[in-house]
């Protein structure tokens, strides 16, 4: 009881009634101010800011018309090769001469103009009927513009809008030094592709198997942004880009900017 009486008398004493009351330390006020500023900044960003949703997919630089594969119509020995890899050939141009076991000479000709991307035949080689001789990329003129074809998983292709911007990391171009190639989605395929259909378009069975290794993808055609101020003729994330031209049938990886969404939309029903 003695201690209680002392405590009550202390509370009733007016001796210290004029002393200021300390509600918070300066450090606490600073923390409170920083917290308030952070909350305000986060609220503004949630309403006015945006988060970019991207999709990565493997692809290749090529021409939109694709390629075709020339096959030997007969069995025999190659006696002449009229072009080399990288050469441009016209329609109905002689490409390979073959002599059959009966002594007949057969000339394999190109059905359409293009650029020879691979040549399997060599003088003296023996070929069988139906053997691949060459792959020719369909181009009308030597300066036909390149495009990129991305092979997107079929489950993600529906989220890719036409007109979406694309950044392409080209296998033959160091991205840290020259940046990435710019482009936009021009067309999205309607059906998933088998490895055989991919091979028929690219003229390469190996590429067909590579792009279809994880399932049947959908082809997304990307139109490259042009630029007259670069050596390649295309726009790059760094102004100059590489000092050498791009070659078709070069592998690339595309980052498609699918959509930009406000963070506040995630909280709305």
What would your notes on this structure say?
- With 269 residues, the protein is of the alpha+beta class.
- The chain contains 6 helices and 14 strands.
- It has helices spanning 2-11, 26-48, 154-157, 175-178, 195-202, 205-211, and strands at 51-62, 67-71, 76-81, 88-89, 94-99, 105-109, 114-119, 126-127, 132-138, 147-153, 165-170, 181-188, 217-224, 250-261.
- The strands form 3 sheets. A 6-stranded antiparallel barrel has the order 1-10-13-12-11-14.
- The model has no long low-confidence stretch (mean pLDDT 85).
Counting H and I runs of at least 4 residues, what is the number of helices? 6
Overall shape: it is elongated
pLDDT averaged residue by residue:
85
Number of strands: 14
Question: What's this, in brief?
Answer:
About 20% of the residues lie in helices and about 35% in strands. The protein is built from six helices and 14 strands.
Q: What labels would you give this structure?
A:
4-stranded antiparallel β-sheet; 6-stranded antiparallel barrel; single chain; 34% strand
């Amino acid at each position: 009881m003695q201690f209680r009486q002392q405590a009550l008398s202390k509370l009733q004493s007016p001796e210290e009634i004029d002393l200021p009351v300390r509600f918070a330390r300066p450090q606490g006020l600073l923390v409170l101010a920083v917290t308030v500023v952070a909350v305000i900044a986060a609220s503004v960003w949630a309403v006015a800011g945006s988060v970019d949703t991207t999709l990565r997919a493997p692809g290749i630089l090529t021409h939109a018309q694709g390629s075709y594969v020339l096959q030997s119509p007969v069995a025999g020995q190659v006696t002449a090769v009229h072009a080399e890899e990288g050469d441009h050939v016209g329609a109905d141009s002689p490409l390979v001469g073959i002599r059959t076991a009966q002594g007949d000479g057969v000339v394999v000709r190109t059905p359409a103009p293009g650029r020879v991307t691979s040549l399997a035949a060599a003088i003296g080689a023996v070929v069988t009927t139906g053997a691949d001789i060459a792959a020719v990329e369909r181009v009308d003129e030597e300066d036909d513009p390149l495009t990129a074809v991305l092979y997107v998983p079929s489950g993600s292709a529906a989220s890719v809008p036409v007109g979406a911007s694309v950044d392409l990391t080209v296998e033959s171009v160091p991205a840290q030094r020259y940046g990435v190639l710019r482009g936009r989605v021009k067309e999205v395929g309607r059906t998933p592709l088998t490895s055989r259909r991919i091979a028929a378009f690219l003229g390469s069975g190996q590429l067909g198997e590579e792009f279809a290794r994880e399932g049947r993808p959908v082809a997304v055609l990307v139109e490259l942004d042009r630029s007259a101020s670069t050596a390649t003729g295309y726009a790059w994330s760094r102004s100059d880009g590489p000092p050498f031209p791009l070659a078709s049938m070069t592998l690339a990886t595309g980052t498609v900017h699918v959509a930009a969404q406000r963070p506040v939309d995630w909280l709305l029903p």
